[in-house]
Amino acid sequence: MQRRDFLKISAVAGATAALEGCGNPDHQLIRFVPEEDLIPGIATWKPSICTLCPAGCGLLVRVMQGEAEVVREGRLGLLKMGLAKKLEGNPAHPINQGKLCPRGQAGLQVTYHPDRIQGPLARVGPRGSGQFREMTWESATRQLASQLADLQESGQEGSLALITSPLRGQKRAILDAFANHFKKSLPVELAFFDDSTIRAANLASFGHALPLTLDLGQSNYVVSFGADFLGTWNSPVAQAIGFGRMRTGRPGERAKFVQFEQRISQTGASADEWIPVQPGTEGAVALGLAHVMLAENLRPAAGAGHAGLLLEGWSEGLPDYAPEKIAAQTGVKAETIVRIAREAAAHDPAVAILGGAAAAHTNGLVGALAANALNALLGSVGKPGGILFPPLLAAKESGISLEILASQINSRAAAAKVLLVYNADPVFSAPAAWGVRAALDKIPFIASFSSFLDETTMLADLILPDHSPLESWLDDAPPSGSARTIRSVAPPAMHPLHNTRSMPDVLLDLAHQLGGDLASTLPWKTYDEAIEASFAALYKEKGTKIAKDADEFWQKAQDQGGWWSTEPESVPASPAGAPSGVVKPRAPEFAGDPNDYPFHFLPFASQLLYDGSLAHLPWMQEAPDPLSTVMWGTWVEVNPRTARKLSLQPGDLVEVTSPHGKLEAPALVNPGIAPDVIAMPVGQGHQNFTRYASGRGANPISILSPLTVEGTQSLAWAATRVKLSVVGRGKLILFGGSLTEVSPELEHR
Amino acid sequence: MAHRWGMVIDLDRCTGCEACVVACRAENNIATVGEEQAGLSRAKHWIRVERYYEGEFPDVKVKFQPVLCQQCDAAPCETVCPTFASYHTGEGLNGQIYNRCIGTRYCANACPYEVRFFNFFNPVWDKPLHLQLNPDVSVRTVGVMEKCTFCVQRIKAGEIQAEAEKRELKDGEIRPACVQSCPPEAMVFGDLNDAESRASRLANSRRRTKLLAELGTRPKVTYLQRDSWHGDENA
Known about the structure:
heterodimer, A: 749 residues, alpha/beta, N-terminal domain of TfIIb, Rossmann fold, Dimethylsulfoxide Reductase, domain 2, seven-stranded mixed β-sheet, 27 strands, 30% helix, 19% strand, globular, B: 235 residues, Alpha-Beta Plaits, four-stranded mixed β-sheet, two-stranded antiparallel ribbon, 10 strands, 20% helix
């Protein structure tokens, strides 16, 4: 800025009191007044729902009037409208109680992202070229409707495929009705860090196909196996609130927290005792703890009921899991297991948590069953301070996995003619070995509801961009995080900025265009009508005491951000009697010969980019990772001893090779990782995902071997082995300063 | 009696999650600088989470510590400013008047906590990201220093509201963005002149420490050291 301009602008600033910032820096005026003399503007607060991870936290959106440049009916103009300015947790919401994680805070940038797709697009260039032309919603929905009508008329209803993120509430119901009409099956649900192994284990042990709901605020002893429950796992905000109370919220009482894992996670950093364990043997440690409690008569074997009897050798006291017998296999000293078992048994209520990588080994399901049995033995199931199960409003079933869909298409066992993709990026989120890209190439017509040109949407023939969550009606029924029954609902917090439409509204429109059975199973014109109908049903069941009629109930729910029970409604474990069969605990399998691939490869959820779906948000890219302080990039973590052996300097570019692919990334020397483990955050490595994420770093998912968790369809994402070689110098940006300044501390020499 | 704002951060609760970091950026219009400038150490974070590794594998510990402006009573940044841009407010905050600042950066050199950030260039928000900007907080231009204000705009809003309703401010009514978002409730904000405020009481905890207390800066941020398990004491 020229000095003359500065003075001119300063003079203007003196004349106008309150100023708004805007994009052009020359228009940003400097205030003459100190900050404490300012007069804040008036804001309104509207409830909403965070959709960025499966936790389903409630939001309060700070909305203030502003001017937005928008295109309406083809003309650009300035529109005075309510604009979301800040997201806070909704204090009334039972899950996050007014609190919000860093990812949730950044949800604002989804709405205001400069690279949002602003209206429907049709592909014009070759597939994958990224060449699209704008079109109207009328012709876009007509095009998709005619594709679907063709399937119906030619009797090929089964060749519609749907891939979505795991959904709940009426959005899920609408999508399911659609899938069921065409395919007589459910949509393929895709989440890289899915919880299906935990849900399968909880169904077998306790009769509930639900994730865990913890009650850490009342726990006295917490043993976690690989679960990043304070960072990214399950319902992290609810769990962090409980953790704070568990630590210093109860005068005179402070629980102990023990973490077993291979690399100190953000959660592990807060542990009172951090214990490294061999990958895939977390379940064995849980059974070792149970063995000690049984052998020392700290708890009766029968106390665990069904959850214990499921496991082979339980009634005999788990003789194969004596601490000295498993010490070599697990890497945990026998005396440590004995001590932890005694401490846990002596500090009611004690709770065991297994998740993350521990559930993503080939034996992950058995591991989760072992942790369940340990909880049952401790007597913590359905008890305050233990694990709870809120009543489930609707049974949650899953369709086939993406791996199976891709292999059916690739082997021509099933033909997919039309694919709809919603809130998922299957090309990015699947190992290359699944052949997802090749499968998509075989599908003649792909329609995406994405707001951004990600790897999958680049391949779409038709793009029907969804509203951002803040611009949409939303509903949700989160299955964990609180023992209360919760039905969240939120009207749009602001008007749409662009020419977008809500995905469920588009599906309802399509259903009406297609008519017939589908239109009669989906009687609502719009998504909010569907939500209102579900709240009318909920009123009859739950709301008659708090509202005089369904309308008042519906209004109250919208004002509050949903309806929830006033008290916890945890349901007891339900399976009775002896289980039909017993499960034999087994050793984990790994892809790759240890002689060729000496290291275990541990991908982990990024605290900021999560599973990569948030890599397009500049706030997330520039927030320093909590443990490494890396910004705008990715890295590979190596133990200092391993680094010395490989003559590896921090910041060196290393090549990580698995039996199924390779990638390059700069190395970070981390004292908190086992010497035989190489860790890497998931999140970067997008080829296409807006100006902030495209072409940045490498994607660890791509090189994973296609092993599954035995007994489930889930990817065993912690079961790949790799080798490592130095190939040059890399670039790593640390907030702690330049790499050379930071590395001595990181290496802790 | 005038308010004297202070903060207590319980390191036994802090999980290092960075919610405070992002909440602060959202509230205070802190622009991202992009990869290249971040690589030149020009990224701005009014609050950051420091982490310290101790020991060698397998006996490793990590500790988190959020660091923001300590709002010192004897602030080294204030005395060195030739234009009185860095000054002490009536409520004890280390204020920064942006349009008095001529960018000598003496304050940043004097601050032992490294919580002051210089604008090496005009901030940029790729449109329409600018629509998120908080109109209560001025945008800083090239050549000026910026820093944590304890969310003075929220303090002011709370004081005006209380005055309009002809009542005293309630303890806990004003919360800076970092405090409001913090999931484990590790951060407590309040009036240190009110001996009964939660912040005042917690600041007397047996676990209290001040960051670099030996420098005599008299910070108004108190850290409560991480505790350890007392084992069978309470068994």
